[in-house]
Design a protein that fits this description.
- This protein has 372 residues and is α/β, with parallel strands linked by helices.
- The chain has helices at residues 45-48, 68-80, 85-113, 138-147, 196-207, 238-244, 255-266, 268-277, 307-325, 345-348, 350-358; strands at residues 8-12, 23-28, 50-56, 129-134, 162-168, 296-302, 333-338, 367-369.
- The protein has an eight-stranded mixed beta sheet, with helices on both faces.
- β4 (129-134), α4 (138-147) and β5 form a beta-alpha-beta unit.
- α3 (85-113) crosses α8 (268-277) and α4 packs across α8.
- The termini are far apart.
């Protein structure tokens, strides 16, 4: 987009015709599937008065590769995470601060280049920017909230435009939580009993399947998919499947693969979560901008998604409740659930997805979108 950011706009729906109070929805993709996975959302722009901007992260199509310095940090962290986790954590946090600055600069450039309506131009849920990170990119959202207040402010302060940051069906480990009962074997992606070939074969149907979870978290369904609907990825044509997938960053030496393996044991995700939740408005805080303290953090999830996300939602609710009980000063945190939605809700339920991203929220009660 500019010399200041290595991110790439895969698609921009543009402003809804004639609207002066539309909201700009900026979405970052997750692990392996790039911005094209959201391709069913831009056609809904006019109907929902939203400008949909699909962004590819570094190392994905159209975006810049990581600079050698940042990639070296990541590789060094991976090499020492077992022997020196604290040193690895510091390197990964520096790497994620770089990613946060990359996204921050993207937002600055986008606001400066587009005459977008300011937040609240015609009411609390109008105008401004909603930025979300799906799945693995939830880590980018936590990093943005953790570090944005410390970045220098020029003519554009993006914090005055951003209304909401969304953890969009983010798994527990990206939010810095341990697995349920210490067990990750339910996911083909991590099951130590499976070969790499088996993981590759089983992973897509697992990640895009539908699961029926009980109301108590200790018994979340880890393995057996519902027979209907079918996994989202299995319904795609060969051309559609090829158009949304980009494997190099998730290969064994790819940046996303290395970060995904090194970050949890280092403890860096948990640090980012705590930094993201707590506001920075003390009298002694010399941060360039405190506008980010007013930005809401929303955890958006589908109740038929994989257990890793349901467990993450449960853990985040506990964290927020404990912080409030302790009297900690945290940002506004809300939860939005889409009924009968899986991890690929933007493919199978695009209208519910847009409605959920833009929904009026409440701190007192989870907002529920859609119907069974």
């Amino acid at each position: 987009m500019s010399e200041h950011s290595g991110l790439h706009i895969h698609h921009d729906s543009g402003a809804p015709q004639g609207s002066t109070d539309y909201t700009t929805l900026i979405l970052l993709h997750g692990f392996a599937w790039h911005g094209a996975i959201f391709s069913k959302l831009p056609p809904l722009s006019e109907r929902y008065n939203v400008r949909v901007v699909l962004v590819n992260r570094r190392d994905y199509p159209g975006a810049a590769p990581y600079p050698k310095k940042e990639r070296a940090l990541l590789d060094a962290a991976a090499a020492e995470v077992e022997s020196e986790p604290a040193a690895a954590r510091a390197k990964i946090l520096s790497y994620m601060e770089y990613n946060a600055r990359d996204l921050y600069d993207f937002l600055v450039d986008f606001v400066a280049s587009n005459d977008i309506p300011k937040a609240g131009v015609k009411g609390p849920n109008s105008g401004g920017i909603v930025v979300g990170g799906w799945s693995f990119a939830g880590g980018w959202m936590l990093a943005l909230l953790a570090y944005a207040h410390s970045f220098p402010v020029g003519e554009v302060d993006p914090g005055t435009y951003v209304r909401r940051v969304i953890l969009y069906d983010a798994p527990f480990h990206v939010c810095g939580y341990p697995p349920l009962n210490g067990d990750i074997s339910g996911s083909p992606l991590y099951d130590p009993s499976l070969t790499q070939e088996e993981k590759i074969r089983l992973g897509p149907d697992y990640a895009s399947g539908y699961f029926k979870h009980p109301n108590f978290v200790d018994a979340l369904e880890r393995r057996t998919r519902r027979t209907s609907p079918p996994p989202s990825l299995s319904t795609m044509t060969a051309e559609e499947g090829a158009s949304v997938l980009y494997a190099p960053p998730v290969d064994v030496d790819g940046s996303d693969c290395i970060l995904n393996l090194a970050c949890p044991p280092s403890g860096a995700w948990a640090v980012l979560r705590e930094k993201a939740l707590h506001v920075h408005d003390s009298e002694s805080d010399a941060a360039p901008s405190r506008s980010w303290d007013a930005v809401e953090l929303t955890y958006l999830w589908g109740d038929s998604t994989v257990w890793e996300i349901v467990w993450g939602v449960h853990c985040m609710k506990q964290t927020v409740q404990e912080a409030k009980t302790a009297g900690d000063k945290i940002r506004r945190v809300t939860f939005v659930r889409i009924k009968d939605a899986n991890h690929f809700m933007h493919w199978d339920k695009p209208e519910d997805t847009v409605r959920a991203c833009l929904a009026a929220t409440s701190e007192l009660e989870e907002v529920v979108i859609g119907s069974y």
